[in-house]
Structure formats: C-alpha cells, structure tokens
C-alpha cells in the first residue's frame, strides 16, 4: 500500500482514538453508569402502602465506577445523599470493584498511548520501522480492558446487588430493596469505544501490518526447509 494511503488510514484511526479517549475519560469520571430505583420496605410495611401510595416510599440513585448520588424516600420527604467508593464504601463493595478500578486506569493509559502512536504515525515516517506494527496494537489492549471493565461492573450490579448495598449504606432503621436498574450513558460510551478499538485493529490490518502473533508464510516455509535439511 502506498505511503500516502497509510497516512490517511493512520489519521482516520487517530481521529477515532481521539474521540474514544475523550469518551472514556468522561465516562469513567461521571456517575452515569447505572440508574436504579429502590423501595423503602420498612416504611411501606408500617403503613401498609399500596398502589400510588408506594410513590412516597420510592427512591432513586445513579452511580458509576467511583461515586454517585441519589434520593431516599420513606414517607417523610426526600433525603438526598451522595457517596464515593473511597473512603465511604471500602468495606461494603465487592472485590470486583477494586479489579474494575485497576482495569479502568489501564484503559485510560492504553487509549492515550494508542492515540499518540496513531497521530505520530499519521504525520511522521515511523511506520517504516520494524517496531511500529507491535506498538500500533496497544489500543487492542485498551479495548480488552474496556470489555473487562464492563463485565466486572455488570457482575457487581447483578450478582452482588451493588445498588441495594449502596441504598442500605448507613441505614440502620430502614431497609431498602432495589426495584429496577438500567445502564445509562457512560456504560454505553465504553461499549461503543470497545468497538472503536476493534475497528482500529481492522484499519491497521488494512494498512498492511500483520498482527504480532501472526507469522508470515515465507517464515514458516523457511523454517520447514531448514528442518528438512537437518
């Protein structure tokens, strides 16, 4: 492939990586991953509430990987609250949360590193060096970390009932039960960025570079010939 076409492909990949980097940093820093509603069971049972009366006992919250906010209601008016995993919920959150924190930092580093490589190759002549194909596949690591962050966070929410634990944090009198949960903007931003990294891998392959773990046919043929000689 001509060098000019390679530059165009690298610039396209750089633009996608730049958009992805902005989306990832914004998504990880906002509490817009999950929106949940929860019912104050204790208050509803005390007054035997039903139908529209349950609205006075319904609270809601939204949270992300690091912090969140919400409103508790137990028949006596709204009580807004804010929380952060560190240091508020260190003893309450499951181990998966700590692992997802680790992969989220790797995701940010991988996205920014991949962006720098794409831009450097798009406006320079680095793609002529042998080290380039290996460095260009750094975004693949970032994409894998993004996938792991989504899986770990979803398991925390669904398996470990994270929303219910947060709703009952420091609530000795009232007990809350989660009614509904849905993934919101930031979660889907990470999901889209995962596919962007996959698309960047296809663009690199389109530019003529082989994956680091793929061996060329010429090398395999040479190895076979050498083995036959001995």
UniProtKB/TrEMBL annotation:
One of its GO terms (biological process) is equilibrioception. It comes from the Eukaryota. InterPro entries: Clarin. Pfam families: Clarin-2. Its main location: membrane. GO terms for cellular component: membrane. Signal peptide: none annotated. It is a multi-pass membrane protein. Keywords: Membrane, Transmembrane, Transmembrane helix. It is found in: Membrane. The chain crosses the membrane at residues 98-123, 135-154, 187-207. Belongs to the clarin family. This is Clarin-1. It comes from Trichechus manatus latirostris (Florida manatee).
């Amino acid at each position: 492939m001509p060098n000019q076409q390679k530059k165009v492909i690298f610039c396209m990949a750089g633009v996608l990586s730049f958009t992805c980097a902005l989306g990832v940093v914004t998504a990880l820093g906002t509490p817009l991953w999950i929106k949940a509603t929860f019912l104050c069971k204790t208050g509803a049972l005390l007054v035997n509430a039903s139908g529209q009366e349950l609205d006075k006992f319904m609270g809601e919250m939204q949270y992300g990987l690091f912090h969140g906010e919400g409103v508790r209601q137990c028949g006596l008016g709204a009580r807004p609250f804010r929380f952060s995993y560190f240091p508020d919920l260190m003893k309450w959150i499951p181990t998966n949360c700590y692992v997802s924190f680790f992969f989220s930092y790797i995701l940010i580093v991988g996205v920014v590193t991949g962006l720098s490589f794409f831009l450097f190759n798009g406006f320079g002549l680095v793609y002529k060096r042998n080290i380039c194909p290996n460095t260009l596949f750094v975004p693949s690591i970032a994409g894998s970390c993004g996938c792991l962050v989504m899986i770990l966070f979803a398991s925390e929410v669904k398996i470990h009932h994270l929303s219910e634990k947060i709703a009952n944090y420091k609530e000795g009198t009232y007990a809350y039960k989660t009614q509904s949960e849905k993934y919101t903007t930031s979660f889907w931003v990470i999901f889209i960025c995962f596919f962007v990294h996959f698309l960047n891998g296809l663009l690199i392959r389109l530019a003529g570079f082989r994956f680091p773990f793929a061996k060329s046919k010429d090398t395999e043929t040479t190895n076979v010939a050498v083995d036959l000689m001995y």
